[in-house]
Amino acid sequence: MLLTHWQGDGWAEGTKGQGQNYFLSFGYKPNAKNTVNFLITGAPQWHDQNYTKKLSSYYNSDGELNVKYNSNWGYVDGEYLSERRNYYHKPVANLNWDWYINEKSKLSTVLYASWGVGGGTGGYGAYAKTTTDGYKDWDATIAYNESITDGIGSNNTNGSGYVGTAIRGSRNNHSWYGLVTKYDSKLTQHLSYSVGADLRTYKGKHFRELTNLLGLSGFDESDNARYGSNHIVTETYYASPWKSMFNSASLDQQIDYSYSERISYEGLFGQLEYVMNNFSTFVQGSVSSQQHQRFEFWNETEANEASEKVTNPGFNVKGGASYTVNEQHTFFGNIGYYHRQPVHDDVYLNYSNLVNPVTVPEKIFGAELGYKFVSEKFALNFNAYRTEWNDRSTTTFLSDGTELSNGYVIVGEGYKNAIQDELHSGLEWISVMMYYQI
Q: Could you tell me whether strands 279-296 and 255-276 are parallel, antiparallel, or unpaired per DSSP bridges?
C-alpha cells in the first residue's frame, strides 16, 4: 500500500497545484499452480496554468521584465482564484490470474477497468475585467455581472454579443473495461506458440459545465437542439479531481457542447516461435473487429442523438528472423503487413454524427534488415527500413461547399479527414562508446 500527498505554489505566478498518489495491491496463492492479484492505483491532481500569451506580455508598462508573470489569476475579496485550472483523476484497477498448467503451458488473464474524470477550466462569455497591471480583476468582473438585468449571461444567442462572464469546466470523462487472456505452450524443446484474445469497450463523455458564475444567477444556453429557447443553466460544479468523480453536470445543466462515443474492440492473436542455438525465427498475426458509435446531445434532438454504427475489420501478420554469429555479431530482419482500423475522430465528420465517406482502414507494409555488434566498450546497431503507408487519414480544413472526389459536398466549415499515401524509407545507425573507470 502506498499513499502520498504533494502541494505547491508552482514556479510562475498563479500556478498552484495539489495532488495525491495511491496504490493498493492484494495477492493470493491458493496452490502451487495458481496466483491471483488485485491492484488499484491512481494519481488525482489539479494544477493552475500560465496559459498562452504574447512574449511582450512579460514586460510591464515600465519596460521591466517579469518572467514569472501570469495573467490568468487574481483575487476575489482577497482570496486567490485562477481562471485556468487542469484537474483529473484516472484510477486503474487490474485483476490478474496466472495458471501454471504444467511444465510446458501457462495461461495468463487480466481483467481491467479505468475511469477517467476531469478536465480544464477557462473563461466563458465576455472577457473578464483586468487590473492596470494585467491580472484578473475578479471583483470588478463580479460587479459587472451583478449589474446585468436578471443576472443572466449569454453567449451571443440573441445576436447581441457576449453578455456576462463566468468560468467553465471542459470535461473529458471516460470509462474503459477490458479483458486480455494469453495461453503459452512449448511444443518441443525448440518450438513454442502462444494464442490469446483481447476484448475492450470504451465510453467517452465530453461536455462543458459552469464552475463559477462570478455573481451571475445563470447562463442562457438556448442555442441547442434539445431544449430550445429560454433554456437557463444555473448550477455550478467543482473543478476538483476528487469531487468531480461523483458530481458532474446533468444533461440539462451542461453548456456549449455535449457529445459522447462508444468504441468496442474484439481481437484474437497468436505467435509461433522457433529457437535453436544461435538462430531464431517467428511469425505472428492477429484479427480484430472495431465498432464505433457517436452520440450528439447538443446539436441533435433526442430522437436523432445516436449516429450510425460503423464497424471496421482489422488484421496484421508479421514475421522475422535473427542469427547470432557469436557474442558480438547478430543479423536480423522483419517484415509485416497491417490492416489498421481508422481512429474514432476519423470516422465522423466535423464533430458531428455524419459518417466520413472517405475514411477507410489504413494499409501499412513494412520491412527491415539490420546488423548488431556488441563488444566490451563499443555497441553498434545498423538497419535499413522501408514502410509503405496507404490510405492514411490526415486532418484538413474544408470550407462550405467543397466537393469531394466521390461527389459528397461539405455543408458548413470545419475540419475533415482526407486520405493520402506515404512512403518512409531510410538507414539508421546507432553507435555507443562505453568507458570504464577503475
A: antiparallel
Strand-strand pairing, 45-48 and 85-89: antiparallel
Place of cell 498562452: 52
Helix, strand or coil, per DSSP, at residue 85:
strand
Q: Tally Cβ neighbours within 10 Å of residue 382.
A: 14
* Structure confidence by residue, pLDDT tens digits, 344-362: 988 887 788 888 877 889 9
Cα distance between residue 233 and residue 229, in whole Å: 12
Tell me the residue type at 135: Y
Comparing CA positions, the residue from 119, 117, 212 lying closest to residue 167 is: 212
pLDDT tier at 395, thresholds 50, 70, 90: low
- pLDDT interval class at 385 (50, 70, 90): very high
**143 three-class SS:** helix
* C-alpha distance from residue 256 to each of 43, 58, 154, 226, 407 (Å): 29, 32, 11, 12, 32
Q: What is the amino acid identity at position 291?
A: Q
pLDDT digits (tens, 9 = 90+) for 172-204: 999 999 999 999 999 999 999 999 999 999 999
Per-residue pLDDT at 289: 97
- CA 253/CA 231 separation, integer angstroms: 9
- Res 410: pLDDT: 59
Q: Which amino acid is at 192?
A: S
Q: Residue 31 half-sphere exposure, CB side, CA atoms within 13 Å? A: 4
The pLDDT value given to residue 404:
60
DSSP 115-132: EEEEEEEEEEESPPPB-T
- For the record, the C-alpha cell of 139 comes out as 471583483
Nearest to 39 by CA among 21, 30, 50, 27: 27
